[in-house]
Amino acid sequence: MGFSGWRVLKEGLTGNRGWGSHWRDATPGDAYDVVIIGGGGHGLATAYYLARNHGITNVAVLEKGYLGGGNVGRNTTIVRANYFLPGNSEFYSHSLKLWEGMEADLNYNVMHSQRGQIALFHSDAQRDAAVRRGNAIINQGDDAELLSRADVKRMLPYLDYDNARFPIYGGMLQRRAGTARHDAVAWGYARGASDRGVDLIQNCEVTGIDIEGGVVKGVQTTRGAIRAKKVAIIVAGRSGQVAAMAGMRLPIESHVLQAFVTEGLKPCIDHVVSFGMGHFYISQSDKGGLVFGGDLDFHASYAARGNLPMMEHVMEAGMTLMPMIGKARVLRSWGGIMDMTPDGSPIIDKTGTEGLYIDCGWCYGGFKAVPGSGWSMAHLVATDNHHEPAARFRLDRFRTGRGLMDEEGTGSQHNLH
């Protein structure tokens, strides 16, 4: 089923009765070339690029719930490529380029809006750090602009510029950054993968991974055993639990990250804005709601809900930055399970078991990484060679200490990234 302006007009005039299903609701087969555990954004993108880039279509995506029901459908939707260190910078640069061509590639409207992100700074030291980061971003081939206080005030007049503790000195703007519609991204990749022959299997929880003589042979599921030549674990916050089925202990912790949405308001925030003196970020959705978040709940947990002290902390940061937000009613909140690595950077690698691959540890960067992760993971599974932009995301860096990437300079504690 293709999409076009003419098709949308026709369906609108005829009661929208001609739309078909976006993807096939497949039943499990006996065996596949590749089984992907996890039907979120990264898993669906991997399946799509396996089929599109490598012609591997005998693939099953196994999802214990419904497609897009995890973090990919519940996040603050920010897309950017303003990373500083080698390893991260070239990967997110590659991912942003894929975002820019995604809608044409998938023939699907993911509402990618390059409205720009402004990262504020509040001291001379933070300005110096922003200049250094901006130069690194430009050297990588992406865009960054240093904004003065007056520049920011023209663009964001609603902020509190004279807060006694956190006066705004300026900001760094990446115009190509922005947002996208989270669940539409999952649907677009699901549709593209299904159209190419991939089986998308919902309500199919993996309960075991079959390994014989150091070689993966398949998986056990709530819908029966499935044989596979290769298995990819792509399950975000559940990575540690699923990897344990294969006898692996991953260097990750799972933490809860809360986010919030207000009632719908008239357009008032044109950009993505992040607060330099606290982990707070905000944008306005296409429905008018203010979408914002902040720090992790600082304890390891698999509970998909947050705690009230961190909620208060996030609200305080929002009120400090833009007091006007205090008039908006919060409609809903949620807690996503983040798989945090000790250096704040992801893992895309082969494991010690032949035919078993892992894609995890995305910390805060999971949504913006969806296309890049899918592309690089598909390349690894198909060729057994690392895709160059993701070549530093090795699992063994935590064992050897070589190649660690501490993007935020906060050390080796998972929850500080």
Q: Gist?
A:
This protein has helices at residues 5-13, 41-54, 88-106, 124-140, 149-155, 182-195, 239-244, 308-321, 370-383, 397-400; strands at residues 31-37, 59-62, 78-79, 117-121, 145-148, 170-174, 178-179, 199-201, 206-212, 215-221, 224-233, 253-264, 272-275, 280-284, 289-300, 330-340, 347-350, 356-360. It is α/β, with parallel strands linked by helices and 417 residues long.
CATH topology assignment of the largest domain: FAD/NAD(P)-binding domain
Rg from Cα: 21 Å
SSE series? HEHEEHEHEHEEHEEEEHEEEEHEEEHH
Largest sheet: 8 strands, mixed
Number of separate helices:
10
Distance between the termini: 42 Å
Count of discrete domains = 2
Average pLDDT, all residues: 95
Q: Provide the helix percentage.
A: 25-40%
Q: In total, how many beta strands?
A: 18
Provide an overview of this structure:
- The structure is a single chain.
- This protein has 417 residues and is an alpha/beta fold.
- The chain folds into two domains: 22-77 and 182-251 and 343-416, FAD/NAD(P)-binding domain (3-Layer(bba) Sandwich), CATH 3.50.50.60; 113-177 and 253-340, D-Amino Acid Oxidase, Chain A, domain 2.
- The protein is built from ten helices and 18 strands.
- It has helices spanning 5-13, 41-54, 88-106, 124-140, 149-155, 182-195, 239-244, 308-321, 370-383, 397-400; strands at 31-37, 59-62, 78-79, 117-121, 145-148, 170-174, 178-179, 199-201, 206-212, 215-221, 224-233, 253-264, 272-275, 280-284, 289-300, 330-340, 347-350, 356-360.
- Strands 1, 2, 8, 9, 10, 11, 17 and 18 form an eight-stranded mixed β-sheet that branches.
- α2 (41-54) links the parallel β1 and β2.
- α3 (88-106) crosses α9 (370-383).
- The model has no long low-confidence stretch (mean pLDDT 95).
